[in-house]
Amino acid sequence: MAAFCAMWPDASLHGLSDEGAVALSWWVPGFCTAADWIGSNTDLFRPPAACPDLPDYRAGAREAARAAVAAAGLASGTARDVPLFDFALRPMQAACAGVPLTDGPMLAVIEDETGAGKTEAALILAQRMLLAGKGRGLFFALPTMATADAMFHRAAATVGRLFDRQTTLTLAHGRAGLSVAFRDLLTGGPRGEEDATCSDWLAESRRRALLADIGVGTIDQALLSVLPVKFQALRHFGLSSKILIVDEVHELGEPYIGAELQALLRMHRAAGGSAILLTATLPMAQRARLLEVYGGASDSPAYPALTVAGAASVIEPEQWREPRRGAVAVRRLAEPEAAADLLADAAGKGAACVWVRNAVDDAIAAVGLLRERGIAARLLHARLALCDRKRIEAEVLARAGKAGTGRAGFVLVGTQVLESSLDLDFDVMLSDLAPMAALIQRAGRLWRHMDLRPPAMRPVPAPVLHVLSPDPAKVADAHWLHGTLERGAWVYPVADQWRTADVLFRAGRIEAPSGLRTLIEAVHGDAAGPVPEPLLAAEIAAEGQGAAARGHAAHNIVDLAAGYRAGGQANDDALYPTRLGEPQRVLVLARHEAGGLRPWADGAGPDAWALSEVSARLKRLDALPLPDQSAPAIAAVTRDWPDWKRAEYRLCPVAGDGTICAGLRYDTECGLIFMPSA
């Protein structure tokens, strides 16, 4: 010990507070894990032929460590003060370029409408925070794998300019290896000095992705740093040096995941970390809870708004003066048949149309209604095999994306996957009734790119959001929604649904951005009005479920104040989920061919089996007579699977007519279809 201390004579814990020591206790194990992994490289750390003196050994080890850290992709560069974008800044972006930075760890909340350039605004602010020494990298946390993939594609074009050396960029989620953009980065490498790169070492594990200069992934990857699971401390260590950018933060307002997010921010702040939160529809009460973590508060109803915890005031960016779509009118439709008639008529006039449904089964039924009217509607939802989903997504983007062509008469039916993951622009939109925040997100895909498609180019005179909903003035019983929506009536709390219908149909329009705060608070805020008496029991039940979820989160989240020695554990991820919800079962689809079973995505190379996977509710699938997994043809494929996969997944051959088993079939265009009982 004396010899060790003699090598670092200036090392001291003097002045370290008890609180600082506790925070450090969570950081050190992660640091040691990363160091151990890098130090395990026997090509760089060879045993010495002779035993050198300790000072000489330290000098040689330091040189080897520099080479090893650089080879791993962790040799952080210095932030550069260079323009990230070559376009004129929008108001929120300009606000982020000029807002005063606070001392120490900092939290900023960016609230603006969909399509206002919040991602670029966050990057501008994050660059300033890097230059101020508030971090050595970034981690973008997104709500879904699809949104993470989209963000990775956008980030790859910009983040290479942030540092004075080649920037490492990774994608962190369970299916990162299937991302074409990420694979291109790994195999093609950087093409210029300002292009990002990724080392093989970083790409080997999504746990290591949080150690890169720039990480993009699902929020789950960050939330695992506050749960008592394996590699929790490593994730915390990786995030601690990053500016954490959480996008679509309004989607993290449910009690369980909301509590996790607050714990994540507390732990991040304790380690000296800063964060930026992005949202279009954040209730003020939720914003207040998040600001409080960093010692801030705000009751300002301004919108758009840039709020910095601890700052004196909220910045209200001036309205952007580019051609905008204006107010979106809202009209109610009472039945699905009327909705199908409306879309068929609009498509006949050359409009690009979309119907956003709350449930997959209802989306499939809607396509049937449209096809009865001669409309070849496309269908996009989460119950498609990955290969089919990616193919349909590519077609949808090519037709209705920002630069889409062949839009005339194109009709898409989809579910919540359309709310945030894809940059789409429709002339006519129909949506099932959903909570206000979700409807505002959906409406963000209506008349979206006005600079490319001004009103004169649209086949309809004005943007209208048509909402399939019962009349909120006629609530006879607790099943108010069920006469109009089928499975989609169960997706959201009925109280939120009723308040949305009541407020929105009385308003008759969505005025963005100036009117969004009022609409959001009227449904999701603390001052939301009462619901009709027949819905009270359902609201009380929902509140009880929320309280239970918060209790569940409190039990699962690590005890930060206890320190790592008392609170750190290494449990299996499955025991401590990042989200609560219905358990899912993964089916791996296969085709019958001579010689045995082949992947549904046959021809997709080494990823064919992964691209053949599709998920649905475990309870619903396990009620069906799924194929016997001991059948010889199935066992020949699954015998090489790990034990956990054989226990949780089901290999399902698909017959020529799409049949998987009684009550279940698969269709390339419609996905997994549950058949009605005879």
TrEMBL record:
Pfam families per record? Cas3-like_C_2, DEAD
The UniProt keyword set, sorted, is:
Antiviral defense, ATP-binding, Helicase, Hydrolase, Nucleotide-binding
Q: Please provide, alphabetically and separated by semicolons, the GO molecular function terms listed in this UniProt record.
A: ATP binding; hydrolase activity; RNA binding; RNA helicase activity
Where is the Helicase ATP-binding domain positioned along the sequence? 85-309
What range(s) does the Helicase C-terminal domain occupy? 364-450
Determine the domain of life of the protein's source: Bacteria
Q: Which InterPro entries match?
A: Cas3-like_dom, CRISPR-assoc_Cas3_HD_sf, DEAD/DEAH_box_helicase_dom, DEAD_box_RNA_helicases, Helicase_ATP-bd, Helicase_C-like, Helicase_Cas3_CRISPR-ass_core, P-loop_NTPase
| Gene Ontology process terms (BP) | defense response to virus
Q: Which NCBIfam families match?
A: cas3_core (TIGR01587)
Query: What PANTHER family does this protein map onto?
Result: CRISPR-ASSOCIATED ENDONUCLEASE_HELICASE CAS3, DEAD-BOX ATP-DEPENDENT RNA HELICASE 47, MITOCHONDRIAL
Protein name listed in UniProt: CRISPR-associated helicase Cas3
Query: What organism is recorded for this protein?
Result: Rhodovulum strictum
Q: What is the lineage of its organism?
A: Bacteria, Pseudomonadati, Pseudomonadota, Alphaproteobacteria, Rhodobacterales
